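User: For this week's homework, look closely at the record that follows, marking any run of repeated tokens, and judge whether sequence predicts the tokens.
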Amino acid sequence: MKQIAIISIKAVSGLAVGFLLLLFAVFTAAAQGVAQVSLSGIPPVLGSPQVAELAVGFEQGQYPLTIIVTTSDRQPIEFTLRFVLEREGETVLDVESDPVAYQRGVYVYTSFDQEPPITFPVSYREIIDAVTGSLEQDVSRTGLLSEGMYTLTVEARPTNPSRLV
């Protein structure tokens, strides 16, 4: 009979520890926040290498930038958006936006002027000028993207990472 009482005490203490761990996990999860970013509609092979046509396609909604912010916090969370363009594995452009405050929700951009606007600490001309290597010469001279494999990465970076933990 003493063994049964000891097992019961161990089982109850194990349940209590498990319950406390579960509570800790719930409170931790409630304090987390996430921003998911997707850029959709860009075909694997572009129909035209003209940079101007790509810009018009973005503004016409062909390549929407979607940002989904999930958080239990009702206060806005600030993110910067980092855009990295690589050609054949070499970074040709790396630019980060000014901080943008987002409430939880879904934001679909077809231009950077939509609310909340995405602005950059430099002008668009300076962004184009920041394109490096032979790509800069090709775009400036012809208005065309050079042939090659391009990768565009868009990353939401919290300005205060501690608010997401």
Q: What stands out?
A: The beta strands are 33-39, 65-71, 77-87, 90-96, 100-102, 105-109, 150-158.
